[in-house]
Every structure is written in structure tokens, then in C-alpha cells.
Specification:
Layout: H1 6-16, H2 30-33, H3 43-46, E1 52-57, H4 71-74, H5 76-85, E2 88-91, H6 97-100, H7 110-121, E3 125-132, H8 139-142, H9 148-165, E4 172-177, H10 192-197, H11 200-212, E5 217-222, H12 230-244, E6 251-254, E7 257-259, H13 268-276, E8 281-292, H14 301-319, E9 324-329, H15 339-342, E10 346-347, H16 360-372
Parallel strand pairs: 1-2, 1-9, 2-3, 3-4, 4-5, 5-6, 6-8, 7-8, 8-9
Antiparallel strand pairs: 8-10
The chain binds ligand G3I.
Length: about 375
């Protein structure tokens, strides 16, 4: 049986009647148009002043093969919740190489420009994702026959161009994404940059990003590093080594793609803390909690409670660590989640149902935020 928030359902009823509208939406301010959404009853309002509560902005990637138009530019109800609930946004795919740099001499910035404009209108910070990754690279890059010097110049130009365009408008960058294997060895085979240019190129990526936007906080970001394990140990070794060489690394980010199939990573807090102890910022950047749900069925109340517990424990871990300043969910509605596209038989991983009503997981986040900052709203 689905458990829903009747308050949220009532609040959103009038919004649901609004028609989907096209890209002209980009120029409008959805927060101002959200009928009935009480700002005191949102995640961003509940959040402590020193914690950004964020979401991925749906677009690109798996959305391009789904039977709906681009969520961010077409779904007004989606935009209203995006504006009202969050004070940090991350492009889900719109800044990945394949999307933003589809041909060697072509950049596609319109979608990211619209996200940045939306964020500014709605007083949201932006997380940049990502500059240096083994995945979602365009064919011209992966299949090109470039010399080492050319590849180096291509990476530098990309970073200067993309980071420079949004300088001053991006709070945190996931500069390098998923550079380690599970056993803590570097991805020397599938990451084109490390394979062709050697591990030293990682430092250059951070240096070039810092040069292009000295104010942005620069992060490593990875999955499977929630707990203390070989991969998180590898980051714990690498980051101080780089810092000792003067490389501008500010933080370590844990994606947090969790499943109720597995136990909650109970050492998440301890893991965040050991990075904090190094003087680093930390962040949870992509959390979702998928469940085993057979097609055509709904999760049980027990499953929903278990999911809510995972979200709550992850958020509690972050708020209890001094410099864990950003907590981002990888999409806020099941309507657009990547999970069922990748994991057959799993889904319902976000905090709202398809119709934007709230799950117990939403309520768990809201209560946890309120408890972290009693009496202090955060806009
Ligand atoms: O690679 C093919 C491409 O050749 C083809 O042209 C295209 C046609 O639609 O499909 C391409 O693959 C898609 C890919 O995005 C690139 O556009 C996949 O089907 C699609 O499922 C994929 O989805 C994205 C995924 O990253 C790719 O890794 C998701 O939308 C996005 O939510 C997800 O986000 C990642 C984070 O960036 C990093 N951490 C893990 C997280 C979840 O996988």
C-alpha cells in the first residue's frame, strides 16, 4: 500500500492541473508561481543555514529515450517543486562531455545556461558535474586518434571553456568522477585521460579548474565509497598527497546510490569524519535508495519505512559532520528517476511519487533537517 502525505496532495492539486509548457518556461520564475506550496513546508526551509539541500535536475542521459519531453524545460509542476524544495541543483547530464561538448569544436550550453539562470532566479547554488570521467564521453573523443599533446590540450580547453563560462556561478565542482576501481586501484584502462596521459593529469584537471574559477570548491566524487573500504581508503591517501603538492582539492563527495537490498552503510558517518579530520569539505551528492518492486506493484509500507530510514541515516551522518555542507538527492520524483532504466525490478528510489506527492522518505528528510536546526529556517 502506498503511504502518502495528504497535506502534500492537497497542496499540489491545483498545480497538477497546469499544462506542461515548453522551453519558454526557462524565462519564468516558477517559485513565484507555485500555487499553494507553503515555503515553511519545504526541505530548503527546514535546512540548517550551513547545509545546502539539493537535487539533480532531470535532463539528458536516460531521459532522451523515455516517453516524455525534457523534464526541466517542459514540466511546470516539476519546476515548481524544484524551485520550492531545494537550494542547490546539480545538472544530471547537462554538463557531461557527451552532452555539453558533442563535437570537437561544438559546445552545447543552452540547457546548462537555463539551469544556471533558474538557480539564480530561485536563490539556489549549483554543483557542477563533471569534468573528468570515464563515462558519457562523446565518440569523437573516445574514438579519436589524438596525440598526447592534443589530448592534453583538449582537456584543458574543455575545462577552461566550461568552467570559465560559469565562473562565479558554480559553488562546487565534481572535477574528477569515479577515478578508482572498487579495489582502490586507479581506472587506468577505461578512463581515457589516465590511460593516455598518466595519473599526473588528475592534478592538472584540478589546477585548470581552479584557474578558471578560483572561488569554486573542487571535489572528487565517487560511488561505493559510503563506508570505510579500499576505494574510500584510496581517496584518503590520494587527496593529502595532492594537497602536499599544492593541488587545489577542497573536498571529497560520496554519491550515495543505496539499495534496501543491502544493509545501510553504518560507517558512513565515521567515513565522512575521517575526511573532515583532514580539513576537507565533504558532501553527499547523488543519494537515492532503490527498492525491489515487481513491475505493476507498489512498495509495501514496510519497504517505504526502510527506505525512509536509509535517507534519514544518511542525512543524520552528514549533518553531524562539521564540514559536510551539501546533501543532494539524485532526482526527487520517481517520475524521472534513472533507477528503473538501469535496474530491472528495482525502482521507487526517490522521495516523491510520480505525481509529486511525498513519501515517508521525504518526511524523514524534513524532520531530520528541522531537528538539525530547531527554530532556524533557511529560505
Ligand atoms: O551511451 C549511449 C549512447 O551511445 C546513445 O547515443 C544514447 C541514446 O540515448 O544512449 C546512451 O546511453 C545513455 C547515457 O545516459 C548517455 O546519454 C544511457 O542509456 C542512459 O541510461 C544514461 O543515463 C545517465 C547515466 O548517469 C549514465 O551513466 C543517467 O541519466 C544519469 O542519471 C546517471 O547519473 C550518474 C552520475 O552522473 C554519476 N554517478 C552515477 C549516476 C547514476 O548512474
Amino acid at each position: 500500500m502506498k503511504v502518502r502525505s495528504s497535506l502534500a496532495a492537497a497542496v499540489l492539486t491545483s498545480a497538477m492541473l497546469l499544462p506542461a509548457v515548453g522551453p519558454a518556461l526557462a524565462a519564468q520564475n516558477p517559485a513565484a508561481q507555485a500555487p499553494g506550496l507553503q515555503k515553511q513546508d519545504t526541505l530548503r526551509w527546514a535546512a540548517p543555514q550551513d547545509l545546502k539541500i539539493g537535487t539533480a535536475v532531470a535532463g539528458g542521459g536516460h531521459h532522451e529515450t523515455q516517453a516524455y519531453p525534457d523534464p526541466f524545460t517542459y514540466d511546470q509542476e516539476y519546476r515548481q517543486s524544484l524551485a520550492a524544495e531545494f537550494n542547490s541543483v546539480s545538472p544530471e547530464n547537462q554538463l557531461k562531455w557527451e552532452f555539453v561538448h558533442p563535437e570537437r569544436n561544438t559546445y552545447r550550453f543552452a540547457e546548462m545556461d537555463a539551469i544556471v539562470e533558474f538557480a539564480q532566479q530561485n536563490k539556489q547554488v549549483v554543483r557542477g558535474h563533471t569534468l573528468f570521467w570515464h563515462s558519457q564521453n562523446p565518440a569523437w573523443l573516445e574514438e579519436g586518434d589524438f596525440s598526447k599533446d592534443e589530448l592534453r590540450a583538449i582537456l584543458k580547453d574543455h575545462i577552461q571553456t566550461v568552467v570559465g563560462r560559469y565562473a562565479g556561478k558554480i559553488q562546487q565542482w565534481d572535477v574528477a568522477n569515479e577515478i578508482f576501481n572498487g579495489d582502490g586501484t586507479l581506472r587506468t584502462t577505461d578512463n581515457i585521460w589516465i590511460r593516455e596521459l598518466g595519473p599526473e593529469i588528475i592534478a592538472d584537471a584540478f589546477r585548470w579548474t581552479h584557474e578558471a574559477d578560483p572561488k569554486a570548491k573542487l571535489f572528487f566524487n565517487d560511488y561505493g565509497v559510503e563506508g570505510v573500504n579500499a576505494k574510500s581508503n584510496a581517496y584518503l591517501r590520494l587527496i593529502p598527497e595532492l594537497q602536499a603538492q599544492g593541488v587545489p582539492v577542497d573536498g571529497f563527495a560520496i554519491q550515495g546510490h543505496l539499495s534496501t537490498r543491502y544493509g545501510f552503510p553504518g560507517d558512513l558517518r565515521a567515513n565522512l569524519q575521517r575526511f573532515d579530520d583532514l580539513g576537507l569539505e565533504t558532501a553527499i551528492t547523488e543519494i537515492d535508495v532503490r527498492m525491489d518492486v515487481a513491475p505493476g506493484t507498489a512498495p509495501t509500507a514496510a519497504q517505504l519505512q526502510k527506505q525512509a530510514g536509509y535517507y534519514q541515516r544518511a542525512l543524520e551522518a552528514c549533518v553531524s559532520v562539521d564540514e559536510c555542507n551539501s546533501f543532494t538527492i539524485w532526482g526527487f520524483t520517481d517520475k524521472y528517476s534513472w533507477v528503473p532504466v538501469f535496474f530491472a525490478g528495482e525502482g521507487e528510489a526517490t522521495v516523491m511519487w510520480n505525481d509529486f506527492t511525498r513519501k515517508p522518505a521525504y518526511d524523514a528528510l524534513q524532520v531530520t533537517l528541522e531537528q538539525a536546526s530547531p527554530g532556524r529556517g533557511n529560505r
